[in-house]
Amino acid sequence: MRKVLNTLVLLTIIVQMNAQQAGEDELGAWYMYFGTNKIAERFSIHTEAQFRFYETTSNFNQLLLRTGLNYHINSNAIATGGYGYISTDGTFLEFPGERNSKEHRIFEQFILKNKVWELLFEHRYRLEQRFLDFGTRNETQHRARYRIQVTLPLTDIFFLNFYDELFINLQNDLFGQNRLYGALGIHITENSSVQLGYLRNQFSNAVFDRLQIGFFYNPDLRGVFKKKKNTSK
After folding, report:
1. Are 88 and 121 within 8 A, CB to CB?
2. Considering the entire predicted model, what is its pTM?
3. List of domains in the chain
4. How far apart are CA 61 and CA 80, in angstroms?
5. What would the pLDDT profile of 2-56 be if each residue is shown by its tens digit?
6. Which of 129, 128, 135 shows the shortest CA–CA distance to 102?
7. What gap in Å lies between CA 74 and CA 112, rounded to an integer?
8. Residues 6+ apart with CB under 8 A from 116
9. Per its UniProt record, what InterPro entries does this chain match (predicted)?
10. DSSP for the chain?
């Protein structure tokens, strides 16, 4: 428990230190849901919803909805193809001069996992094709992303999670953004958990500090699909 308390204190200090350097004055928040649901031996469905605010409980900035079909090559390798819908208020510093935008996004993704001692590593490679509608004009953009994530179990209930993710534009300026994240995770049940963390989101001309609350729910749905299949016979 002392490790858990020390971690919470450390995260609070990091937030306070970086908030003074942020390109945006307010400390924002992202409220997120993630699900991975097995539907067959090698297939699962990814579902995701994110609600992003420029302030912790007000000034709504972005809605992100994403889904995909995962193919589990083995327990340590997953390939995914999917679609995302993103609605953004572009009147803030991140997109100066732009108004609200809507984006339809297709993505391809590959995840590799490995374990070193007690550390669980995850490498995520993602390509995105972005179809943006700014109201008065449309754009098509392409982007590559790489995320390295490290998870450290503390007890059977508590764990730490860290990642760094780099965004590379495949047109115009090469650097898109970088996200540095640290969180305390809590296993609620065997297939659900919550993470309370901090994200430092750096763009070329601004830095944003974001609190994050993420809920993860990963029930196995193979029994449900099997039951429906048997009922239909």
Report:
1. no
2. 0.83
3. 2-232 (2.40.160.40)
4. 27
5. 544 454 444 444 444 444 344 466 789 999 999 999 999 999 999 999 999 988 8
6. 135
7. 10
8. none
9. DUF2490
10. -HHHHHHHHHHHHHHHHHHTT-SSSS-EEEEEEEEEEE-SSSEEEEEEEEEEESSSSSSEEEEEEEEEEEEEEETTEEEEEEEEEEEE---STTSTT---EEEEEEEEEEEEEEEETTEEEEEEEEEEEEEEE-SS-EEEEEEEEEEEEEEEE-SSSEEEEEEEEEEEESSSSSEEEEEEEEEEEEEEETTEEEEEEEEEEE-SS-EEEEEEEEEEE----HHHHHHHHHHH-
The token duo for 151 is 């998870």
Q: Which of 66, 65, 145 is nearest to 110 (CA)?
A: 145
Tell me which residue of 166, 93, 99, 105 sits closest to 140, measured CA to CA: 105
For residue 220 the two structure tokens come to 């196995």
Length of the chain: 233
Question: Which residues does residue 199 pair with via DSSP β-bridges, in sequence order?
Answer: 181, 210
* Distance in angstroms (rounded) separating the CA atoms of residues 138 and 135: 7
Q: What does the block give as tokens for 143? A: 């982007």
**Side chain identity at residue 19, one-letter code:** A
Residue 59 tokens, joined = 């000034």
Q: Report the distance separating Cα 196 and Cα 3, nearest Å.
A: 15
